[in-house]
Design a protein that fits this description.
The chain contains 24 helices and 15 strands. It is α+β, with helices and mostly antiparallel strands and about 550 residues long. Helix 12 crosses helix 14, helix 20 packs across helix 22 and helix 21 runs parallel beside helix 23. The two termini are about 35 Å apart.
Amino acid sequence: MDARLKDSLEDVDEISGMPTFHFSYIIQNMIPSSIASSQRIKTFDLEFEDNKEVSVLNDDDVTAIPVGSMAEGLNMPNFMETTKEGCNFLALSDIDIMLVMNQYLITFDEKEKLNLRFVEAKELLPWDYYALAETNDIHPGYVRINRSNTMLFDQYQDREMLLLNFKMYNMQKKELVDNVMVNGPALTIPQSVSDRKVNGNPLPMDKVLAMPCKEWPPPAVPWIQRSKEKDWLPETLIQKIVEAGCHIVPTHHRKVDDCKSRDEWRISFATAERQIAREALTDIQKQAYIAIKILYHQRLKRQELLSSYHLKTVFFYTCEQIPSSRWEENIGSCILCFLDILIKYVKEGNIPNFFIPENNLIDYLSQKQLDELCEALTQIRKNPVEQLLLFFDDKVIENLGVKLEFQSILNPVVADMEKYSHHPNIIKFLKEVIRPCSLNMMRGYMEGAKYNEALRTGEDLYCLMLKCEMTEESLAEFFLTTIPQITTDQEMVINFFICITKIYEKEKSFECCRNHLLHLLETKQTGVHETNWENCWFL
């Protein structure tokens, strides 16, 4: 066995006393890799492109750009919550759309002051708008927008006036007038009146007004060198991000004086964050982030002290520190590292902005709030598995549609933790704990006609056994010997092998599975209905 793999399998976390391999196994089976795959982004892009509400927004004046977790592929999957009355759809993510005003242009170059276009402050969509972003004597990460093109006086863009005009501009539907709310830089269209749907379910939508800036902001210039030194992001991606510039959005810092709040705007790196999430994060890192957001929704969200943006910021810092190969080897230890970094920042009372570290994202929290947050995070850190199991107690991932009883299925893994931490025996653990648990999950997926998920679970188990030198079988042979141990139901067995032969139809090594399927069909008294083929791909 590879020494590095052996170290990973025997690693025990000091704080929780938990073997990190056990934690990794639980995460990767409660949150299947299919839920975090890059295919989600492709699906989102197609849906966004076809959305009629978005197409109405795009014109000569405004360009609609999707940002936030759904556009990044970092959103929570859709969940169904089971209650005594039935199942309820849970919308744990909303749609964030940045409305970029095309006639506007912002510069950080003071030499351009004489070239600025002076326009009427009340005009939302002027023919031409060119203004200067000033960063002196203001909270890091924020600017004032100076519209004056003379050295004789300054005239700053009123943020409240622009937001009011923006709200009126978006009241195209009469029924939305009483429902649209201004939240910071965003207009929130509630779930009850939103046209945006995923799988037929309405989702709330946030529209964010933004002014484009084609320059990289001076306060963020040190980020360029830091990113090159950290060697996480490819230089081509760094260059692309810098060349795209940033945006200016109408929101002020929470602690700014009321008299100055109308003049203060925030530098937004939403499009840069989207590029990083799409091009730098691996599927396994996205899987880890979804696990982190589940911990957040289960234990932290109700405190209303941290936001998902805080989580994403700390997650990017964690990815800077931990090589992507480590995430592949031991996702559990990487999530624990994330929690350690987050707790450290909260204890210091400072979550530094990823691009402008001088901008402390939690400097508005009181010491009492920081203490409450730190206590909650410490409890999660001591036993993150408990929080994950509690979350899934009454919820099921909608795309899977199968309610697995994780508490009972994974109980042997949880029960083995203490014993394994004192006397690690990898082979015994895999044979007596992991293999039975995986087979139970495969059975659950097959009973729910989710044969592709059963296949994925089996593939993961096989890869682990292969790495640990516990089998010399091919993957096809593994399934031939394993499926009869899971079920004797002929219909389920046939459907599973229909699924596997379609997925691996071009693989010669799976000829044995194709022959076995033919044998099963020949010995079956009644023919296989066409719907059986559809069941294999039912999502």
